[in-house]
TrEMBL record:
Native organism: Caldicellulosiruptor diazotrophicus
Keywords assigned: Hydrolase, Protease, Zymogen
GO molecular function, one term: peptidase activity
Record-given protein name: Germination protease
InterPro entries associated with the record: Pept_HybD-like_dom_sf (IPR023430), Peptidase_A25 (IPR005080)
Entry keyword annotation includes Hydrolase: yes
Key word Transmembrane present: no
Superkingdom assignment: Bacteria
Length: 327
């Protein structure tokens, strides 16, 4: 089977299940809808080594929240998504009121589709410095100790992101890391409309074939929960899907006994996809595309994610009270 670039466990499971024609052994799936069916929540749990090997994803939980309202600027849906995100995030984290949380905004702030992580960090309620310098201002202890960093990428810093985070962990000893990153999808309709949360950590760049060292509990020493949103899709996938649709229409309008029908049936998916890659690669390498209004999309979705993180980490702080802990 040809390799489709995607960071979403949901999509990997869909592709493998389609090929097998049945559910995958060692993988549990739960689906439900909320808020008048405008929000879909899919939980993919890999609970065995066999499931891990088949999906090529670590054992753990992968929660995907999908809502078209995220793309359509439906503010009511966005507010509900932030609440769902907070609920799902709370279900994965195990921290006490005295815990310190490190929020890491992965990605390159100079490249708009990759700037989601830094954008989220700029909107998260940061409090660790208050505990150290003005503890009397937060004596009600309704907030947890939260610090954040946007470490950039290897091309900017010359340092692997995992090395930067490991150094920070050794210095401040957080109890949990929440990492935010832009992802790659294999479906156009999921660009900016899906949010994946996982307790397995993250491997930056894996969805676009530029895999870096992973940021996981094994590599940095503390639990890592990753939040990601698809912002790009492989151009070859778009071309492949378009050709696939064209071939299906041609087959529907062609006599099954004709040579043309047999020719259309004989074209393997893998050969077609590799041919498309051969056309694109010499000129652009691995070409990924993103919506033209990606700046607006990143701004909106970063607010939704930051709100969800704030609600999960500081559940007792109401939105109109956040001003008490800033400036």
């Amino acid at each position: 089977m040809f390799k489709i670039q995607t960071d979403l466990a949901l999509e990997t499971r869909e592709l493998v299940q389609k090929g097998l024609g049945r559910e995958i052994e060692g993988v549990e799936v739960e689906e439900r809808k909320e808020f008048e069916d405008k929000i879909k929540i899919t939980k993919v749990k890999i609970n065995s080594i066999k499931g891990e090997a088949i999906l090529q994803k670590p054992i753990g939980n992968y929660i995907t929240i999908e809502a078209d309202g995220l793309r359509d600027e439906d503010f009511e849906v966005q507010e509900q998504v932030s609440k769902v995100l907070a609920d799902q995030l709370e279900s994965l984290i195990n921290v006490s009121q005295k815990s310190t949380v490190l929020v890491v905004g992965l990605g390159n702030w100079n490249v708009t589709p990759d700037s989601l992580g830094p954008k989220v960090v700029s909107k998260v309620l940061i409090t660790r410095h208050l505990f150290e310098f003005v503890p009397d201002k937060i004596k009600d202890r309704r907030v947890r100790s939260v610090c954040a960093i946007s470490p950039g990428v290897l091309g900017i810093t010359g340092i692997e992101t995992s090395e930067i985070i490991s150094g920070i962990v050794q210095r401040i000893h957080p109890d949990l890391i929440i990492a935010i990153d832009a992802l790659a999808s294999r479906r156009l309709e999921r660009i900016s409309t899906a949010i994946q949360i996982t307790d397995t950590g993250i491997v930056p760049g894996s969805g676009i074939g530029n895999e870096r060292k992973g940021i996981t509990k094994d590599t940095v020493g503390v639990p890592v929960v990753a939040i990601g949103v698809p912002m790009v899709v492989d151009a070859a996938i778009i071309a492949n899907d378009a050709i696939d649709l064209l071939l299906e229409r041609l087959k529907n309008e062609t006599d099954r006994s004709s040579p043309l029908y047999m020719l259309l049936e004989s074209i393997p998916d893998e050969d077609r996809f590799n041919l498309i890659k051969e056309v694109i690669f010499p000129y652009y390498g691995n070409l990924f595309v993103t919506p033209k209004d990606i700046d607006r999309i990143v701004e909106n979705i970063s607010t939704v994610i930051a709100d969800g993180i704030n609600k999960a980490i500081h559940p007792e702080v109401k939105e109109n009270e956040e001003y008490r802990y800033v400036n």
